[in-house]
Write a structure and sequence with these properties.
two-stranded antiparallel sheet, single chain, mainly beta, eight-stranded mixed β-sheet, 2 helices
Length: 211
């Protein structure tokens, strides 16, 4: 499922997005026009998440298609964007996460009715240089930026630069609960990366009217 995150719920005026250079710039677009709501919002991030009957960590959910560990290796490609190993190491180090790790679902062993696991990245635009780019009709490519911080690297350069994980990623774990009045709510942890590890904002309650 597609996952969207906004920095605020109030609409703002549409602004042009700065177009950066791929592999160098990761500047989030200041506003994003949401076609579903027909309004612009500040601080738009996007990605993918899955719902589960049992708690599932990021590594397992990555295999289900949420893209949490970065771009998948493409058969026959001459470049690689695989930064999964250093990212997994960073996610294991999360003192503020439940259990001290971001790789396990924090709402396991609770009364949750269901579970969500997801990942999202800022919406950015970069200069592509080709003549046929989806969505924009120009040489500018816009996307949920799970690309390596230093861009994809040649596979042959095994002694050179390696893809670095995107430092602007956010990982989301939620449990679905019913309160005493049987009102459904999500309780979520939002995990970000900093200083070679991870940190968590825990226990954020979201009711259906909030999303």
């Amino acid at each position: 499922m597609y996952l969207e995150h906004f920095d605020s719920q109030g609409p703002v005026d549409l602004q042009d997005c700065p177009v950066g250079t791929y592999g160098q710039d990761h500047t989030q677009c200041p506003a994003f026009y949401h076609q579903g709501k027909q309004e612009s919002f500040r601080g738009y991030s996007c990605g993918w998440w899955r719902g589960y009957k049992e708690p599932v960590g990021l590594a397992e959910a990555n295999e289900d298609g949420i893209g949490a560990l970065g771009p998948k290796e493409q058969p026959g490609a001459t470049e690689t964007g695989d930064y999964s190993s250093p990212l997994l190491a960073a996610l294991r180090t999360c003192p503020s996460c439940a259990g001290g790790t971001a790789l396990e679902h924090p709402y396991a062993n609770t009364s949750a009715l269901a579970y969500f696991t997801g990942a999202s990245w800022p919406w950015v635009c970069t200069y592509d240089g080709s003549s046929d780019v989806p969505y924009t009709g120009s040489q500018t490519d816009c996307y949920c930026d799970n690309e390596p911080w230093n861009g994809r690297q040649p596979k042959s350069a095994f002694m050179g630069a390696k893809p670095e994980y995107n430092r602007n990623a956010m990982f989301t774990y939620c449990g679905v609960y019913a309160d005493d009045n049987t009102k459904i709510k999500l309780v979520c942890d939002f995990i970000t990366l900093e200083n070679g590890g991870a940190t968590a904002q825990r226990g954020v309650e979201l009711f259906p009217a909030a999303f």
